[in-house]
Write a structure and sequence with these properties.
CATH topology of one domain in chain A: Enolase-like, domain 1
CATH topology of the largest domain in chain B: Ubiquitin-like (UB roll)
Helix content of chain B: 25-40%
Order of helices and strands of chain B: EEHEEEHHHH
Largest interface: A-B, 42 and 46 residues
Helix content of chain A: 25-40%
Shape of chain B: globular
Oligomer: heterodimer
Number of strands of chain A: 12
CATH class of the largest domain in chain B: Alpha Beta
Number of helices of chain A: 13
CATH architecture of one domain in chain A: 2-Layer Sandwich
Largest sheet of chain A: 5 strands, antiparallel
Number of domains of chain B: 2
Structural class of chain A: alpha+beta
CATH architecture of the largest domain in chain B: Roll
Strand content of chain A: 15-25%
Number of strands of chain B: 5
Structural class of chain B: alpha+beta
Distance between the termini of chain A: 44 Å
Chain lengths: 338, 175
């Protein structure tokens, strides 16, 4: 870890002022990802601006029936929050599928969105990586790429986004409230993270001088028919090879609304509007889910070690959608997938 | 032959002299004031500055849980926590669990169940289990296993660790 300066932000305006004044500075909240990246010399900020004491720690119901989650609510508090457990159990389940309780106690909601990839080469400063050092090349494309992306990749980068929470937030169509020098703005969740293209060093559309204030969930929480299924090399405390967030609104046995988001397969939580639309009005059957999976995975491209993910994702979609339809969501402490 | 990768992103000389910041920590009930560099982790502050070496450094990257301590009663990885960010906080380490010479029920249970072999992960396991008991979310052995998954035991004492936690849970009036 390099030496760095440390400042505390007094309020949101002060945080924005400080980050705008120093392009080499970074915000720190939980620190679970940033401190680790600094120890590996992957992140080398000259100054840390501590935002952990800002008053962004509440979970409040909004006037239009949704919920506004402060950016500094710890992951564990969010997962066990009564409103979230009751109305948005998909969010709780996704959080509890990731990391460890120690890390969830530290990690913030906003920080979860800002996690960097876990691509081996991004972490290894002795190897080329376009995300870490633009223009140096991608070591994963012809390297050990078992954990890498199969959708939305580019010749510059095949990294995945590591979050579980974000997969659920994508499925629920959350909004991200951010503040910057010119005021506040709202970003649709689908527009928050980016595909790598030829600028893989830019993970999100958050500007360097902006701060995340809150995540807003819309009124519809799909609390009755949902499931989050995470497939990984280890049964707990591991990043996803493939994860699926499924949410359904059923009318009898028929699907009124379907949401499907994938983790572990792309540079951002992966959604496909056509796949979701294909399910509307259909009976909630494995056959319908298989058809939706085919659409969702259209264009998927495997590399030397991760082509298995295409079939794994197809099967995981069918299984997770079936769990959602049956009202038997995956229990994260149970290692049996039914 | 390929050239080694450019290290050009190591772009600036490091700050030559550490700017130390005075912080106060309430460690195991005792008020301690110390000066730390911004990059001093809570783990290093405890071990190197306060000589509380019960908390162990395993991976130093938040992957093994050996450094688990309680901050404001919640279990965290001390290795990923900057000490300066915890100015004013109450910290409990393995040294602070026993009261008046009597072992904490978890410490006794780990002995009763032989819940270790080499013992290196044990302080982190016990602090993590103390956090788990305070959270009150684990009722079954499956739930204990899942919520203890941030603590690695390379000797593989897991079955005995789960048994020890179950005993302490009963002793402390849990389910």
């Amino acid at each position: 870890m390099i030496n760095f300066e440390y400042e505390r932000a007094n309020d949101v305006a002060d945080a924005v002022r400080q980050i705008a004044a120093d392009p080499e500075a970074k915000f720190i909240a939980g620190g679970t990802n940033l401190v680790d990246l600094m120890k590996y010399d992957v992140a080398r900020p000259m100054r840390l601006i501590d935002i952990s004491r800002l008053p962004l720690k509440s979970v409040e119901e909004t006037a239009d029936g949704g919920v506004r989650i402060g950016a500094l609510v710890p992951n564990s508090d969010l997962a066990y929050h009564p409103i979230i457990e009751k109305r948005y159990p998909l969010v709780s389940s996704a959080i509890l599928a990731g990391a460890s309780q120690q890390l969830r106690n530290m990690a913030s909601t906003g920080g979860n969105l800002m996690q960097r990839t876990r691509c081996f080469y991004f972490y290894d400063v002795a190897t080329p990586c376009n995300k870490r050092e633009p223009g140096s090349g991608c070591s994963a494309i012809d390297g050990i790429n078992r954990i890498n992306a199969i959708l939305g990749t580019s010749e510059a980068c095949i990294a995945t986004h590591p979050s579980d929470l974000c997969v659920a937030l994508a499925a629920l169509e959350a909004k991200v409230h951010v503040a910057g020098p010119t005021g506040e703005r709202t970003v649709a969740f689908a527009d928050f993270h980016r595909l790598p293209g030829d600028t893989p060093e830019v993970d999100t559309n958050l500007k360097p001088n902006e701060i995340i204030m809150a995540i807003e969930l819309p009124a519809r929480g799909f609390a009755k028919n949902y499931s989050y299924l995470k497939i990984r090399d280890r049964l707990s405390y591991a990043f996803a090879l493939v994860s699926v967030a499924a949410a359904l609104e059923l009318d009898g046995g028929h699907i009124k609304e379907a949401r499907l988001a994938l983790g572990g397969v792309a540079h951002k939580p992966w959604r496909n509007a056509e796949a979701e639309a294909s399910l509307r009005g259909k009976a909630a059957t494995p056959h319908a889910f298989a058809q939706a999976a085919e659409i969702a995975l259209r264009g998927a491209k495997g590399f030397s070690h991760n082509a298995f993910k295409i079939d794994l994702a197809r099967r995981a979609i069918i299984r997770t959608m079936t769990q959602a339809a049956n009202g038997t969501p995956q229990v994260q402490s149970s290692k049996k997938v039914r | 032959m390929d050239e080694p990768v450019s290290r050009s992103h190591f772009r600036r000389e490091v700050v030559s002299k550490p700017r130390e910041i005075s912080i106060t920590l309430h460690v195991n009930g005792e008020r301690r004031t110390l000066s730390v560099a911004p990059w001093t982790t809570l783990l290093d502050a405890l071990r190197e500055r306060l000589q509380l070496t019960g908390t162990k450094k395993g991976c130093d990257h938040g992957q093994c849980g050996a450094c688990t301590v309680l901050v404001e009663g919640r279990r965290v990885n001390a290795c990923l926590t900057l000490a300066v960010m915890k100015d004013g906080a109450h910290v409990t380490t393995i040294e602070g669990l026993a009261t008046d010479g009597a072992l904490h029920p978890l410490q006794q249970a780990f002995i009763d169940h032989d819940a270790f072999q080499c013992g290196y992960c044990t302080p982190g396991q016990i602090c993590s289990a103390a956090g788990l008991l305070a959270e009150g979310k684990a009722k079954t052995s499956d739930e204990i296993r899942e919520l203890m998954s941030g603590n690695i035991c390379r000797c593989g004492a897991y079955p005995n660790i789960v048994a020890a936690i179950e005993q302490a849970m009963r002793a402390m009036g849990g389910t």
